[in-house]
């Protein structure tokens, strides 16, 4: 009996996928539930498992766009499983060793070796090149005019290094991301406001409690929990930032689903921390770790990347000092974190060195006014610079569940 395997629906509104990679070859024996292909949708890359065991016949090529429900392969369930696998092919008979060609005797040095002709000498002199560094191809090793010209490539003339190129089709996921980024720039009134955060209070807390926190909860006390909870607080203070446009209507949410940008093997993934307003420091760190691992291992699902109301992206892990992050549609705002650098700042009339991070908020000016955007970012800054009072209610050990 031959089974026709069809493309399952990876999620609502997805009508087609692209065969990114076949993990098996035509004619292979596959086991039930064995991953046989990676398929790209416009939201994620997913593995396609074999529905039954048998000999597989591929019906689509890598790079093909296939409609949901279309047949991509046949599995002959009646075929017997090969015993011991395919026999190892005998090594091909060794080719007879080629006789070594007689080595050419090196050209003898003469008075002409390395000597430039008058025309070559002029060219080399103009460019400040010694004739001794140029290999001559003239009689007895004389440097000719042609040798001198080749030794001094003009501006725009290809050099001696590699000049290859590679053309590779963009994955469906990457193409969709590109389309959405261009759409955001064209269809929103996107602006960015900036501020700076003194990270010393958070550094002090982490230095004192991170070891005990990790020992008790099994996760590190990172920066993301502080930033997520600071954003939750600010979103509750400025609900317009936690809203989006739907046609001629503005939709505001009474919950905070925070999307976090994570680098995965297929590019940038943006999984969602659901109801971040109900999470503690331990809860945020555990969820960030879980989602990051799933994204890096290619196990993240479409459902885990949809429905966010606000996004946090951290370019600082790659060394970015400052950037203008692009809004993650249909959301209306995104916070950009950056690297932390010791900088001189003024405190109480004195110059001191503090670990400073620049932060950026990109927002859709159609529904978020300047007052709200600046106020939101200031609220984030205040919470990060005074985390004990504003994020922990004055009780550090209770907030960290120590």
CATH class value of the largest domain = Alpha Beta
- Low-confidence region ranges: 86-99
What is the radius of gyration? 31 Å
Overall mean confidence score, pLDDT: 86
- DSSP, total strands: 19
Overall 3D geometry?
Answer: extended
- Tell me the CATH superfamily of the largest domain: Chloramphenicol acetyltransferase-like domain
Counting helices, strands and paired strands, the structural category is alpha+beta
Major sheet description? 7 strands, mixed
In CATH terms, what is the fold-level topology of the largest domain?
Chloramphenicol Acetyltransferase
Query: How many angstroms separate the termini?
Result: 60 Å
Please count the helical segments: 9
- Strand residue percentage: 15-25%
The residue fraction in helices comes out at 25-40%
Reading the helices and strands in chain order gives: EEEEEEEEHHHEHHEEEEEEHEEEEHHH
- The count of domains is 2
State the CATH architecture of the largest domain: 2-Layer Sandwich
């Amino acid at each position: 009996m031959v089974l026709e395997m069809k493309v399952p629906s990876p999620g609502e509104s997805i009508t087609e996928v692209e065969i990114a990679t076949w993990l098996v070859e035509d004619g292979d024996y596959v086991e039930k539930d064995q991953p046989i292909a990676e398929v790209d949708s416009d939201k994620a890359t997913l593995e396609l498992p074999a529905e039954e065991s048998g000999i597989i016949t591929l019906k689509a090529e890598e790079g093909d766009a296939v409609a949901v429900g279309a047949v991509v392969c046949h599995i002959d369930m009646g075929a017997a499983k090969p015993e011991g696998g395919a026999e190892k092919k005998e090594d091909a008979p060794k080719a007879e060793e080629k006789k070594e060609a007689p080595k050419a005797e090196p050209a003898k040095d003469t008075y002409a070796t390395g000597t430039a002709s008058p025309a070559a000498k002029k060219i080399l002199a103009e460019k400040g090149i010694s004739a001794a560094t140029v290999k001559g191809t003239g009689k007895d090793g004389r440097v000719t005019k042609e040798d001198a010209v080749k030794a001094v490539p003009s501006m725009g003339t290809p050099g001696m290094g590699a000049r290859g190129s590679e053309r590779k089709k963009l994955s469906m996921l990457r193409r969709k991301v590109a389309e959405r980024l261009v759409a955001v720039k064209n269809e929103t009134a996107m602006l960015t406001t900036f501020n700076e955060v003194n990270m010393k209070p958070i550094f002090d807390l982490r230095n004192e409690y991170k070891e005990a926190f990790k020992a008790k909860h099994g996760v590190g006390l990172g920066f993301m929990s502080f930033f997520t909870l600071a954003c939750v607080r600010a979103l509750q203070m400025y609900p317009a930032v936690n809203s989006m446009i739907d046609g001629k209507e503005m939709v505001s949410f009474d919950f905070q689903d925070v999307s976090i940008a994570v680098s995965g093997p297929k590019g940038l993934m943006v999984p969602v921390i659901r109801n971040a307003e109900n999470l503690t420091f331990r809860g945020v760190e555990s969820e960030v770790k879980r989602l990051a691992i799933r994204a890096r291992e290619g196990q993240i699902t479409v459902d885990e990347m949809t429905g966010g109301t606000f996004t946090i992206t951290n370019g600082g892990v790659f060394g970015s000092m400052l950037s203008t992050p692009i809004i993650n549609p249909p959301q209306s705002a995104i916070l950009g974190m950056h690297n932390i650098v010791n900088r001189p700042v003024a405190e109480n009339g004195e110059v001191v060195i503090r670990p400073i991070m620049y932060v950026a908020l990109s927002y859709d000016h159609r529904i978020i006014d300047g007052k709200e955007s600046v106020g939101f970012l200031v609220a984030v800054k205040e919470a990060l610079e005074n985390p004990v009072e504003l994020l922990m209610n004055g009780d550090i050990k209770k907030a960290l569940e120590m």
